Amino acid sequence: xxxxxxxxxxxxxxxxxxxxxxxxxxxxxxxxxxxxxxxxxxxxxxxxxxxxxxxxxxxxxxxxxxxxxxxxxxxxxxxxxxxxxxxxxxxxxxxxxxxxxxxxxxxxxxxxxxxxxxxxxxxxxxxxxxxxxxxxxxxxxxxxxxxxxxxxxxxxxxxxxxxxxxxxxxxxxxxxxxxxxxxxxxxxxxxxxxxxxxxxxxxxxxxxxxxxxxxxxxxxxxxxxxxxxxxxxxxxxxxxxxxxxxxxxxxxxxxxxxxxxxxxxxxxxxxxxxxxxxxxxxxxxxxxxxxxxxxxxxxxxxxxxxxxxxxxxxxxxxxxxxxxxxxxxxxxxxxxxxxxxxxxxxxxxxxxxxxxxxxxxxxxxxxxxxxxx
Length: 373
Prior knowledge:
Among the domains are: 1-46, no CATH class; 47-84 and 93-165, Band 7 domain (Tetrahydropterin Synthase, Chain A, 2-Layer Sandwich), CATH 3.30.479.30; 317-372, no CATH class. It is 64% helix and 18% strand. The chain has helices at residues 78-84, 99-120, 124-128, 131-144, 146-151, 167-310, 317-323, 330-343, 355-372, and strands at residues 4-8, 13-19, 22-28, 31-35, 39-45, 48-58, 64-75, 88-89, 153-165. Helix 2 crosses helix 4 (131-144) and helix 8 (330-343) crosses helix 9.
């Protein structure tokens, strides 16, 4: 009436009554009258609650698994939660907005985030057996999550109900298990058959052992015979070795004599070579002496010629030409006259030399050369 309302809450609900933007009253299980146009009431449920979840993740070997479970939590700080989400109720105590489910979804998202890193680094078979590890990962992730702390919520427990692979993968794993069981059954059959075969083998082995014992006795008899033959052969070989050693000693003596003779011959050859070397040295010295004597004789002749030519050094060549024996020949005299004419050619005006004169001079020169020879 006139906007005045009455509302009542149970003991598990924390109530905050705002009037004109200020807190008028707060606490658990309140009941009071309020003026609706200027009032706003927030009701936050206390106690523990469960958030059911199911989500899919991929393992390190790229297999998809489904994780199903629940998170049990309690609202530790209701006023802090009221500051983050809208828990305003109407006159009938019903929420204006469904933010209660919204913060549950945040818990589920944080749970999945805490699980992803663990699952993505785990193989499929290990992941299917890691329910406890997943619970621990989710609980620690929620406990350390800043988003959860900001909501004023405290996780109480985490329960993983099921970790299941993809249906096709599950069938494949079941098939592998069936094959393993079938393999164990086949192995049992094989072992039973193998036991029977082993018994037959033991009987056969006993028979063969008897035959082996008989053959070993035969072998021992044969070995004794062979030992006697070997002993006889060793004696014969020893005698042959003694003969070979005697022959070797004789041959060795002969070889020593031959080597002694060879050494004597080598000594004789060496003495002859030394004598030849002495003779060669003497011959070499004789050749050296003859060479030196010949050189001295050549030096003496050279000195004699040089001394003889010394007197003619300053004599005119014309005088020397006149002293030459061949200069008395007519041809030589004519040649000398022609040379004098050549030297005084500038003073001669006319000179006539007939062919008859040249022929006569050539013939006279030839006959003079024949007489001289």
